Amino acid sequence: RATAASPDDGTAAGRASHPVAYRSLPALYARLAGATVRSQLQYRWSFALYAVGVFCANGFEFLALLVLFGQAPSLGGWSAPEVALLWGMSTMSFAVAEALGGGFEKLHNVVRAGEFDRLLARPLPVFFQVMASQVEAHRVGRFAQGIVAVAVATTWGAISLGPIEVARLCGAVLGGAMIFFATFVLGGAWAFVTVDGSEVVNAFTYGGTTLACYPLDLFAGPIRRAATWVFPLAFVNYVPALAILHRPDAAGILPLSIDPSGPLATLLVPAVALAYLGVASLAWRAGLRRYQGAGS
To answer: pLDDT tens-digit profile of 29-42?
Structure first.
């Protein structure tokens, strides 16, 4: 039976066995991703319609969010432009993670069909193969909708984005993408444990980005703590938004009364994203070792 104890399991032994392969992985991924994108662009009208459909679907969600402000002037002390900024940051981060992590999202189908053994037989890291198997370029429509939301926030409200705020915004999008991508990796690891746990994973991925669209001030203490230290959604956009908007930490999620506009709070975002990605990597390796093959 095929097992995870192969040279491409991502361990130190595997790296020693295939030093050339590991050094060439970035270039190889760029070639595979480029080939995938070019294949999707072969049907340009289909690609364009899909991207526009994703843009419009997210646009309706954004409009539904703004409808809430027709009934209330603010949500938890946050104005419509401020919530639009949260929504845009979360949407852009999730679009990047979804485009790169689609292979992990669909891994449960591969495992259930007994096709995962083929990845173990190839002289490349399994993690790399899964990541390179799906590059969903049409998610550019979701990313574009996030840009529109940020543009609406800055033009509609009195939100000024100087060079420092723009840098914080870009860093937040990158850090948020890492957090969402780590969640997709955790979902891939979950595929080794259950026959079909896709709905559980979707609750944390697509459900997580929906929760991140709203300020944490709206939620009760247990939810705020879970969204900070268990599933770190707070560092996707809420903590960076406090610095960009120069708001106090009303939810009280930052430890030791850290100033949300200070450099320490800014460094927390990449630190938490890297730590969460490390946890996801450990879970992936544990799940891969657990896999025992299709038995065929």
So the answer is: 888 878 877 887 78
